[in-house]
Amino acid sequence: MRRFFQLLGPGLLYAGAAIGVSHLVQSTRAGAEFGFELMWVLLAANLLKFPFFEVGSRYVLATNQNLIHAYKKEGSWVLWLFLLLTIVTMFPVVAALTIVTAGMSNSLIPTSLDPFQTSIIILIITMAVLIIGHYKLLDQMIKVVILVLTLTTLIAVAAAFGVERQMVETSLQHFDWMSKTHILFLIAFIGWMPAPIDIVVWGSLWSQSKNEQLTEKPTIREALIEFRIGYFGTMIIAAAFLALGALIMYGNGEELSPSGVVFADQLIRLYTESMGKWAYPVIALAAFTTMLSTTITVSDAYPRTVREAIRHLFPKISTSRLSYILWMFILMAGAILILNQAKSMRVLVDLATTLSFITAPVLAYLNYRVITNQAIPKQFQPARYLKIWSVIGIAFLTVFTLFYIGWRIFA
Fold it and tell me: pTM of the prediction?
């Protein structure tokens, strides 16, 4: 047990980054709008993407390097492609996380500031925390916060089965595979379920850092167990959020608001209706801290990733801490511009998650190509069944993405 707790880290960091918009917003929204109809989609998305998410742990153990190094070895064009996808997606992703965090903040602490102004304050705080280097305290806190959020969510779901509620027949909506609105939501829902695939690169950076701190490197079995606990734990929590939305809000005549502040109140009310009003401050603080931690984690990961990619593409260019800070300012400025143009939480979330959905097949293929390379020792490569699993996942993501692109063009 002592050895297991020493190895804990990358899997929990993954869980901390994953439990955010995809869980609190998209999963709850899926349950509130369609009941349990999309539960199979949630589980399928998690299972089909699973082999690609553990590539980071495998590659780091096999080579003592991160996935950016792997992409460069595959060819400069691979790393250029990854860098382009990263730059395209990072601005809307951070904007979406920030607007949801702002909604949670304004719900927890009522203020006269609008979500855009609160978002700017959150981005300034994020930059200050990362530049000063005091994120370690929040990183330690988030483990407790996620535990509180997980336990209270599971308790709320169990209690929700006993809640009596009135169903409004006209509000019983079913998912329509011919509806443009429903298909757009489905794409956004899958895009970040359980998280964007580029988080695998961040995981490889975290695993590399963790292994450098250990006197005895973990075995492949130990590393995969640690990661899988985090991965399948987030899948269970996502299913719990969907169930909570289905049990409390589905068919009651109330729609989830596109406004971050109103949505935050609705989300927290899901807990209070099944657990009691005493739960409001606990859930409000846990939800806000979870979103703030996710925002800070992602805002740190993108500049580090871009800096590392540039270091491999242009070895002569300085990649000191100043370059990290420069990319952080560029990221925050881009996020503010997007926030200023689209202040609706729902619009930003759907934009970010849809972009992640479109780029998923490419990133999935890159990760599969890296870990099945002949240079990787066999004991670190996925088993035969996982390779077949991966091919099925890539095929599913590719076909679904092509369907979506064709549907957008010709519909």
Answer: 0.84
